[in-house]
């Protein structure tokens, strides 16, 4: 089943001689449970694409469908709620709340949405990511790799239709990067979680199920 689809997705900036086509007619589909890496050099459009997939920015034209919903048909408030419930994000900066414990950070999105924490599922995620002994720690008491694992657990806790990761290992050394990406691969398989990861690192991209290359705002290969 197709979880994510873009049709003729475009994002233009400026006009006339200063027109920049950050995305220029991107057609992409991702199946449920698939782990896809989108690879491109700086300026290729990959981060712009991720922002569109996550509804963080509106396109110039085209559509993005997530779990059967055309997300840009939603008004801003509706899109915010949809994004919170259906899309998980993992960024290069861990974006953890410094005054909250690891466990509080993980369940925060669920509580903000007024939902009930599925303790059994969250415990499974915590165990899979090896965070059992760190639940009462504050983020500043963790290593970079541990903080990124907390960010991944937080993204997974809401059971999103899709998890989007933007250079998730950009702040980590090579060994820790491999460890974190291996855990992402394991969680993708264990929980049948659909993941799309943006990276410029070919070695890291090899851990995915499929590599999509983007050049000058267009899909070069898939």
Structure in words:
- With 222 residues, the chain is α/β, with parallel strands linked by helices.
- The protein has a single domain (33-50, 83-221), classed as P-loop containing nucleotide triphosphate hydrolases (Rossmann fold).
- It contains 7 helices and 10 strands.
- The protein has helices at 46-53, 76-86, 102-112, 119-128, 144-157, 174-190, 202-205; strands at residues 2-13, 20-31, 35-39, 61-66, 69-70, 87-90, 162-166, 195-199, 210-215, 218-221.
- It has a 6-stranded mixed sheet, with helices on both faces.
- The model has no long low-confidence stretch (mean pLDDT 93).
List keywords for this structure.
single chain, 222 residues, alpha/beta, Rossmann fold, 6-stranded mixed beta sheet, 4-stranded antiparallel beta sheet, 7 helices
Average pLDDT rating: 93
- Percentage of residues assigned to helices: 25-40%
Strand order of the largest sheet: 6-7-8-3-9-10
| Uncertain residue segments | none
CATH topology: Rossmann fold
Q: How many distinct beta strands?
A: 10
Question: How do the strands and helices of this protein lay out in sequence?
Answer:
Blueprint: E1 2-13, E2 20-31, E3 35-39, H1 46-53, E4 61-66, E5 69-70, H2 76-86, E6 87-90, H3 102-112, H4 119-128, H5 144-157, E7 162-166, H6 174-190, E8 195-199, H7 202-205, E9 210-215, E10 218-221
Parallel strand pairs: 3-8, 3-9, 6-7, 7-8
Antiparallel strand pairs: 1-2, 1-4, 4-5, 9-10
Helix pairs in contact: 3-5, 4-5, 5-6
Task: Give me a quick take on this structure.
With 222 residues, the protein is of the alpha/beta class. It has helices at 46-53, 76-86, 102-112, 119-128, 144-157, 174-190, 202-205, and strands at 2-13, 20-31, 35-39, 61-66, 69-70, 87-90, 162-166, 195-199, 210-215, 218-221.
